[in-house]
Amino acid sequence: MEKKSFWQSGHKPSLFGAFLYFDISFMIWGMLGPLAVVIAEDFPMSPVQKANLVALPILGGSILRLVLGFLADRIGPKLTAQIGMLSTLIPLLLGWLWVDSLNQLYIVALLLGIAGASFAAALPLAGQWYPKEHQGLAMGIAGAGNSGTVLATLFANRIAQHFGSWEIVFGLAIIPIVIVFIYFSLFAHNSPNRPAKKTLSEYSNVIKQRDAWVFCALYCVTFGGFVGLANYLTIFFNTQYGLSPIMAADITTLCVISGSFFRPVGGFLADRIGGTRMLMILYAGAAIMLASVSFLPPLIVVVALLFIGMMCLGAGNGSVFQLVPQRFGGEIGLVTGIVGAAGGLGGYALPLILGRLYQLTGSYTPGFIILSLIAGGSFILIFVMQMKWRRSWLSKIHTPRTAITPIDSAKA
What we know:
By secondary structure, the chain is mostly helical. The protein contains 20 helices and no strands. It has helices spanning 12-29, 32-42, 47-75, 77-97, 102-111, 113-116, 119-127, 135-143, 148-163, 167-172, 174-187, 200-208, 210-241, 245-261, 263-273, 275-293, 299-327, 332-361, 365-396, 408-411.
């Protein structure tokens, strides 16, 4: 049977709906990153408190991704996404009308994780429509919704300054999520090829598999690195280089753009040269860039380094999810939730590493050195695992290696 091209296969309205849901949810999830500098004018915070504020939405998203991943498998990704969008209104209303202390803001920050959990419904909705040979690009396009972070860094502080209130940013964010909910409800659909519901024992079997934990570790670094930096860089530029809140957020936007829009590129290239090979290139690049940032060079240099580093991390997100559906195609909803949760935990840890070490040492150098070493360790992990996957593949099936990526050996 002749294989269809990407544009001939799948369901484009559902793919676009998944992208929109992910995009606006990411915008909401990442609002506190740029706003933290402005909020600090009302609620003075130490470096660790600022790190906690921007890390809590990531922690909430990490936990809730497991919940949405479970629901996506049980009731379908479309209904799960609709529930997620309606639930996202809760922290937006609270942030707009209720918060008057830092502790209350921490509660809202944690609840913003509902938006971050969108990953566990958006990606299965898109991925289940497409065959394996187009998984990298489909998942990359849907996952490019992390470009919503660009909207947050670009507009959040400007809106707060224009209206003289950061709370209004939460209120105005209700408008786009309602619009996306309407589009999504009308045009997005579950794939007819959606896998059957899994039993609890099947969930347990997936979690016990080594490859699931390998993907968790890989995504913890790529996605965790991207979202953690996206949420923390405004604080970094404001503190280290003395930039105003809006200028710090604008510079952060430049860095975030590269990671957001190279996610589908990473998936596309992984389809062509293999996910494991692509990831080794990207982890090496990220490690080198982060190590260079640790020297805290002039602003223009550090922006270039972070631009390339976040490009590697963003493309790495697409590459990881080029591999996941091939290994766990029948459990994609559950595994997406598990792997996504691991990515969220990485994003939660990153601001805490930078914030705590800055408070202890007065410098960001130690934090970026540690981040570089973590990326280097991920390079070693994928290098070792791809050799194991390849040996397993070659020992069982004698199809030419160019027909399949090394990860398929683990499925054979």
